[in-house]
Write a structure and sequence with these properties.
- This protein has 22 helices and no strands.
- The protein is mainly alpha-helical.
- The protein has a domain at 236-477.
- Helix 2 runs antiparallel to helix 10 (201-235), helix 8 (141-164) packs antiparallel against helix 9 (170-190) and helix 11 (238-272) crosses helix 15.
- The longest helix is centred in the middle third of the chain and has 35 residues, at 201-235.
- The radius of gyration is 22 Å and the shape is globular.
- It starts with a helix and ends with a helix.
């Protein structure tokens, strides 16, 4: 099966998994945003960095190393399972012990119990890493969809019930516990692993030799992804952190989750083309174009319709989050390119360079935080946008070297896709200026109008990117559409 055919099949089921989750999560998100307060979301935001760091250690890069293997042996499975289980127990113990200090740092005593209960998610997640990695390596995204979507539904129902019964922030804790617990359970049921009570030193050396650099770089990346929550939680009101976390969640639903779909499918696919530089470059360019085709208009519409989206959908109490969402969307406009560029380094086996780049970029982020916080919350967010674009330049510099794909070439490919979003933004922007979206119905109408203009314009010009997207989508389109679109 060609890479294009495998990509088409893989993307479909990752989309089912991610968007099945996103549809459920969006509905739950809206209900919880109306039942809970910004302070409730802010409290969870304060401690998320500690769980994210613990999860990075639990994964320890071994999952990525498994995906890269041509054949995963029973020794590999057993070694990764027991190593990760031990790490997850250790880090849960650390979270339990450190909970009072975390609460003292933020001056919120209720964080002690929240941290200790939510810490169980680290163990739940650690016991299924072999299944997740093996399914991804085998492009078994259908099974992952069957595990993740029901888990999200169960977690959503549980959290909404608790929020309705006035359990406050504990409704959010229940959501995290239920989704990690049930997704791990379903992954084991769908793909039982032959785990023996055995630890193979050679297998560990092989996997950890590649994975530990990804561990360190992933640890840096995870820490800095959540560092803004730590800073905002420490120096600003808890409600401000609540506005930030919710704006970030909306932005992630549109941008970073799409980038996650791309990263999840393309890493194992590009790994198969890793020994053929010409094929790797061709596949990389197509991925850049197709992902930009979807993400650019989504991010632009978030910037344009941030106010009616938050106010009409989540409620008036979330109006202060509007500028947060607009700035985060500006930062997320090119986020998918970060993921794709870093995937190339993993594919060519340069985990050492991957780590080096993460260190350089985190110095850049630290400078942005130190400078930005001097000008308040908006100064902090503006510097976050600037630092993200500097980081992208650093990433693309090395990709250009490995693939003989220069930065001007990359800019030209991206620019062609970006230009096709201009008519949509112009027309919808004028329409919303003349007739603001004061109702949910009008907001939906503007979103439909944007979709019609964007898709219609792309079909009219029928660019190379449009042809690539249509070819990938062809197996899933009705015959009438195929005839109409000449594919």
């Amino acid at each position: 099966m060609s890479l294009k055919a495998e990509a088409s099949k893989g993307v479909l089921w990752v989309i089912v998994e991610r968007f099945g989750q996103q549809i459920i999560q969006a509905i739950i998100f809206i209900i919880l945003a109306r039942l809970l307060t910004p302070e409730d979301f802010g409290l969870i935001g304060m401690i998320m960095i500690f769980f994210a760091v613990a999860q990075s250690f639990v994964d320890s890069g071994m999952g990525q190393a498994l995906i890269r293997e041509k054949e995963i042996t029973d020794q590999d499975r057993s070694t990764v399972f027991w190593f990760n289980l031990l790490l997850s127990i250790i880090f849960y113990g650390l979270l339990y012990i450190c909970a009072p200090w975390i609460a003292q740092f933020f001056e919120r005593p209720e964080l002690v119990n929240l941290t200790r209960v939510m810490g169980i998610t680290v163990i739940f997640s650690g016991i299924a890493i072999v299944q997740r990695s093996e399914m991804t390596q085998q492009l078994e995204f259908k099974k992952q969809a069957y595990a993740q979507v029901p888990a999200m539904f169960i977690a959503g129902m549980g959290s909404v019930t608790m929020a309705y019964l006035n359990y406050g922030v504990w409704a959010l804790v229940a959501q995290y516990l239920l989704i990690t617990g049930f997704s791990s359970l379903f992954l084991w049921l769908l793909q039982p692993a032959n785990i023996r009570f055995h630890f193979d030193k050679d297998s560990f050396t092989k996997l950890f030799g590649f994975g530990y650099k990804l561990l360190l770089s992933g640890l840096l990346n995870t820490t800095y992804q959540h560092i803004y929550k730590l800073v905002i939680g420490k120096f600003f009101a808890v409600s401000t952190l609540g506005f930030y976390t919710q704006a970030k969640k909306v932005q992630r639903m549109v941008g970073q989750n799409l980038a996650g779909i791309i990263e999840k499918v393309t890493y194992p696919l590009l790994s198969k083309a890793g020994n053929d530089p010409a094929r790797l470059k061709r596949g990389y360019r197509q991925i850049v174009k197709c992902s930009s085709f979807v993400i650019f208009p989504g991010m632009m519409m978030l910037i344009l319709l941030a106010e009616p989206l938050l106010v009409q959908v989540l409620g008036e109490q979330w109006r202060p989050a509007v500028p947060f969402l607009q700035l985060l969307s500006l930062s997320g406009l090119l986020y998918h390119l970060h993921s794709i560029n870093l995937n190339i380094l993993k594919v060519v086996g340069r985990s050492d360079l991957f780590l080096k780049l993460e260190v350089i970029k985190k110095v850049n982020t630290t400078i942005a935080i130190v400078v930005g916080i001097q000008f308040g919350i908006y100064g902090l967010l503006i510097c976050q946008v600037i630092s993200s674009y500097i980081a992208l330049f650093i990433n693309t510099w090395y990709t250009a070297r490995f693939l003989n794909y220069s930065i001007p070439e990359q800019g030209e490919d991206i620019g062609r896709v970006l230009v096709l979003s201009i008519p949509m933004i112009s027309i919808v922007g004028i329409a919303t200026y003349l007739y603001p979206a004061h109702s949910l119905l009008l907001l939906i109408g503007y979103l439909l109008l944007a979709g019609i203009i964007y898709i219609g314009g792309n079909l009219l010009f029928r660019t190379e990117t449009v042809d690539i997207v249509l070819k990938i989508a062809r197996p899933y389109l009705p015959n009438k559409f195929k005839l109409l679109l000449h594919i």
